[in-house]
Amino acid sequence: MLDLGYVRENFSTVEKKLLDRGMPGKLDSFRQIDEKRRRLLTEVEGLKNTRNRANEEIGQLKKQGQNAADRIQDMKIISEEIKRLDDVVEEMDSQLRECLENIPNLPHDSVPVGRSSDENQEVRKWGSPTQFKFIPRPHWEIGESLGILDFPRAAKITGARFAVYWDVGARLERALANFMLDVHGREHGYREVLPPAIVNSASLHGTGQLPKFAGDLFRLENTDWWLIPTAEVPVTNLFRDEVLDSDQLPVSLMAYTPCFRSEAGSYGKDTRGIIRQHQFQKVELVKFSHPDRSYDELEILTRNAETILQKLNLPYRVMALSTGDLGFSSAKTYDLEVWLPSQESYREISSCSNFESFQARRANIRFRTGGKGKSEFVHTLNGSGLAIGRTWMAVVENYQQHDGSVIIPEALRPYLGGAASITTESRLGN
Which of 7, 149, 234, 281 fits 195 for a cystine, CB–CB 3.0-4.6 Å? Predict the structure, then answer.
């Protein structure tokens, strides 16, 4: 959430930043309420001055032994009007906070201005698109032919946009998760945490999913509990309403969890395969940073996520999202896009974002230097390190062979009993 005082004092700047996001008029309601509030405050201040003068007059009349009943009655009427207007101002403060809850974060000055993903800018590219001497097949065909990916049975037990992984397919998913956690823990210094996959509304409000994006979530009936759309939610909220010591910063955490998304508004998109599922697994990286260091930490977090793709030798590129493509809470985002041979294009596999103080203000996460002085809001960051299903898909597609088998990347072989490939005969220990 944006700072109320900042919006008031920098209205034109905020309006311009929101216009860059493609949101003209987003502050209209805020401005109307705030202008009316200012007028009422002026009126209240005038009434309070009148009441103060009346108090002085009443005191003088009483000293002189004169009847002050009329002035006391006048003052009572004024006090009642002040109380009424104070209540109106309080209600307007609530309306302003409600307005701010639905206003997105402001893009950082380094974010490219654009109206959509078409204006995203390539920052760097690693590796070259995988070349084949045959027409590469999509991951769902490879998975089904190898007997490791099953959509019909998933649809039978649940519905569309779910998958069942068999044998090596299931072990490959688990191997990827363990590999990512080991790399981020041992090489990058992230502390592992296993949070609940169910959170309350306060947690979703803290990270910005509520109230605006309730339609994208799954709620447990007759409860205040929701299935998490990403581990960002429970991990960020670990420190909700807490004050950290500046010496602790940055706090770097990682979590492997299931994620659940309704995919509202994505009807007809990526209906084949596992690229857009209602349930998927992900390793999430979350940082709590000092404001002065948060953009350095964003570069570090992004490079950490890239390391996984490099160790798996998967071609990818890094894209700086334009203002029109930023997520609601983000001030700056890099997308990592992995090469998918079947689509002959790069597809997102991780989003690495700096939210500055936007989430921390909503969740009241602060820090204080040396345990003394005034506390400040931390900056929060997160990114996928990586999405497991999409990495599984990228491995299967980029390492497919003409005979239908799939080569296992060398980095994953220790997690799969030393096996070098996946074939129709593969059972890896079964």
Answer: 234
